[in-house]
Amino acid sequence: MTDTENTENSEDTTQARYDVVVLGAGPVGENVADRTRAAGLSTAVVESELAGGECSYWACMPSKALLRPAIARADARRVPGLRHLVEGPLDAADVLAHRDYEAADWKDDGQVAWLESIGAVFHRGHGRLAGPRRVVVDAPDGGRHVLTARHAVVVSTGSRAVLPDLPGLDEVRPWTSREATSARQVPGRLIVVGGGVVAVEMATAWRALGSEVTVLVRGKGLLPRMEPFAGELVAETLTEAGADVRTGTSVTSVTRENGTVVALTDTGDRLEADEILFATGRAPRTDDIGLDTVGLEPGSWLPVDDSLRVTGSDWLYAVGDANHRALLTHQGKYQARIAGAAIAARAAGVPILESDPWGSHAATADHRAVPQVVFTDPEAASVGLTVAEAEHAGHRVRAVDVEFSSVAGAGLYADGYRGRARMVVDLDREILRGVTFVGPAVGELIHSATIAVAGEVPVDRLWHAVPSYPTISEIWLRLLEAYRG
């Protein structure tokens, strides 16, 4: 039965029935729509901002466009015969113009066209749940669309930056990740508050573009969710690039005086800057989507099972940031594929074995091998558990560390290549629980580690996965040799 056959119209309100309604048209919501449409289910997608979401316009794409010139220049400076050619400043105007291109100039025509090309129906406007399987969309033109889902409503509304509770902060007009990735000009002085991924990536990018950058970290170091040496190496390189990295420091007040940001810290410092970026956490964008109409707490993270169905529901799903399992675009897209398969299977009456993470229908999600790359200089990449996390989970593990200086390919890649690798070996099962790489270009190594962790490949079997010589991936051989002794 088609959507149009189930559509009723009045002067100000339209009503339509679909098999699936997706709230949020970011990469995750788009992937849900792609999978449900491929399964033959009619699907509507609702978006209040830009189709393509945070990743396309204010996160992954623009941030990496800002970072790529910085990393390429840093790499070139370490290569004989090139370094003298890249000693000058980056062309900031050119970098920002390319950033605008990668962000599609903040226009979503192409994304909307893609959704329509797969047969999804796009509704622009603010969507809210209005009871089970029912979504009301308030359109920009004042119209209202009432959408009913036969099988599933999927929440894919992402997350937003959280600002600290500091008096007068609104008047300061601080940057969040959105302003940091879309700024129209390079600030002369920038204060970055935070030590996580957004903080270190934006500190790297804007320092390379010419900003005087001060990083204020409340904790002991950068990248606290990775192995400690990852943040240490990134901090060293940021400092060498001219950034001022201060740990154990919190902002106690911030004002804007005659256009200048003035920040006071708990260590008694007074810092002045043109802009201040707070990269201090994320919250779910679920506060105004009608969760209360289905018995859920507005503004909450949505707990889900391994098929991404919200706990206690047989029709509501949550994918991506909204369920708080892993705030990463690639993991959200993975969840979207799982949710799409699960919705299609249930619509067809096919049972889902949630206890089988590798089921043939691929309708249950496994989050034991979550990879991440931080695009700093050096890059930091990890998958699975750190040593501390593995021990906390009750595993008996051994950490195996190797410096990249032992790998011929690293020396060929760059003079003075600095980096380290760690694999966390489960001593009882002889499999890898986690892997961390830090060094130039290590982001391209992490998928091999992801396969090893996700596939629970025995260490003895990894010995026969021979890395090519002379490549940086020979670090695998060095890690296995270190483990064997």
UniProtKB/TrEMBL annotation:
Enzyme class: oxidoreductase
Domain (Pyridine nucleotide-disulphide oxidoreductase dimerisation): residue spans on this chain: 370-476
SUPFAM superfamilies (alphabetical): FAD/NAD(P)-binding domain (SSF51905), FAD/NAD-linked reductases, dimerisation (C-terminal) domain (SSF55424)
Listed GO MF terms: oxidoreductase activity
Gene3D superfamilies: 3.30.390.30, FAD/NAD(P)-binding domain (3.50.50.60)
InterPro entries tied to this protein: Class-I_Pyr_Nuc-Dis_Oxidored, FAD/NAD-bd_sf, FAD/NAD-binding_dom, FAD/NAD-linked_Rdtase_dimer_sf, Pyr_nuc-diS_OxRdtase, Pyr_nucl-diS_OxRdtase_dimer
Segments forming domain FAD/NAD(P)-binding: 18-329
Documented EC number(s): 1.-.-.-
Superkingdom field: Bacteria
Cofactor: FAD
Protein keywords: FAD, Flavoprotein, NAD, Oxidoreductase
Protein family (similarity comment): Belongs to the class-I pyridine nucleotide-disulfide oxidoreductase family.
Listed name of the protein: Dihydrolipoyl dehydrogenase family protein
Organism field: Streptomyces heilongjiangensis
